[in-house]
Amino acid sequence: MNSSKLIDGKAVAARVLAQVKNDVQALKRDGIEPALAVILVGQDPASQVYVRNKILRAEEAGIRSLEYRLSADTTQAQLLKLIAELNDDDSVNGILLQLPLPAQIEETRALQAIAPGKDVDGFHSENVGGLSQGRNVLTPCTPTGCMQLLEDTCGDLSGKHAVVIGRSNIVGKPMAALLLKAHCSVTVVHSRSVDAQALCRQADIVVAAVGRPRMIDARWLKPGAVVIDVGINRIEEDGRSRLVGDVDFDSALPHVSAITPVPGGVGPMTIAFLMKNTLIAAVQQAHAQAQPASSEAPCLSIS
Ligand code: GUN
Predict the structure, then answer these.
(1) Are residues 91 and 146 located together in one domain of the fold?
(2) How far is the CA of 98 from the centre of ligand 1 (A)?
(3) With a 6 A CB cut-off, is 200 part of the ligand 1 pocket?
(4) Residue 277 lies in a domain
(5) Nearest alpha carbon to residue 114 among 46, 68, 168
């Protein structure tokens, strides 16, 4: 395998987390202790693993974590009440509501209830709108992590043609907005696109976020493309269970100039940027409390 083509998400995430830890220590010296509240409703096994990892990483970064595990039959009113309490609690800087939610809870209603300044997932419409206007708001963690990997790999992204495969609210749409903000020409392909493969073959940058194992092979890729694989799909193969991406890695590798592996590519970036968003939220809230009438950037700098 040509390892020089591999984009090492684990190493980049470790670097981001080390910087966050450093910045958290500096904040603590100023009497500010960043805190993240994580809410899990129900017992979805994958969500339980994600939430456990988020809490662990927070502790490692020196961020105080508050864990709320609610039963699967929690009502919407009960969840909204908890969110309102966390919004009002000045000692809580970030609120993460793990998705998916049980059927009795309206996802949009619950996400809209989180105060935009504490919305470390960047899912509130005020943050979504702010991103589409190119403002400096809290942005979704996975696409923000993908941008870090792309900027580390390619440098300036200006003028590049990026194709995003998938249009979910969590990855595809914010990914397209972030690439546009970085001055790329952006195409979003999805299930209704006519000849998605031909569109994708024009891309300098491909971001695959469809949730279909190994859908994207060499036929989809222009020689020398940079490929970011957001997919994490569990499949049974040769009698064992394994994780694969949306990209057929072995087929793609000879054609690309760089590619993220699965696992070890995009995966670790999501949590790293959740921690970074919590730090940013803490700094912005401290700034707002110190200077309530000012709209200037926070005085504490974040790398
Ligand atoms: N479920 C799957 N991905 C995510 C994410 O990025 N944030 C939240 N809150 N839930 C998720």
Answers:
(1) no
(2) 5
(3) no
(4) yes
(5) 68
Distance 241 CA to ligand 1 centre (A): 23
Name the residue of 111, 112, 121, 276 whose CB sits within 8 Å of the most ligand 1 atoms, as the mutation to test its pocket: 121
Contacts of 168 (CB under 8 A, 6+ apart): 209
Number of separate domains in the chain? 2
Q: Are 211 and 233 in contact (CB under 8 A)?
A: yes
pTM passes above 0.90: yes
Query: Within this chain, do residues 155 and 245 fall inside the same structural domain, yes or no?
Result: yes
Pairing of strands 205-208, 161-165: parallel
CATH number for 65? 3.40.50.10860
pLDDT at 285 over 80: yes
Pocket residue to mutate for ligand 1, from 36, 40, 50, most atoms within 8 A of Cβ: 50
Say if residues 36 and 65 touch (Cβ distance below 8 Å): yes
The band of 291, judged by pLDDT with boundaries at 50, 70 and 90, is: confident
pLDDT score for 299: 42
Instruction: Give the dihedral of Cα atoms 286, 289, 294, 300; nearest 10 deg.
Output: -20
pLDDT digits (tens, 9 = 90+) for 227-249: 999 999 999 999 999 999 999 99
Residue 121 CB less than 6 A away from ligand 1 = yes
- Catalytic residue list contains 133: no
271 lines ligand 1 (CB under 6 A): no
Q: Does 170 sit in the ligand 1 pocket, CB within 6 Å?
A: yes
Domain coverage including residue 71: 32-120+269-290
For the CA of 140, the nearest atom of ligand 1: 6
Write the Ramachandran bin of 195: left for phi over 0, alpha for psi from -120 to 50, otherwise beta.
left
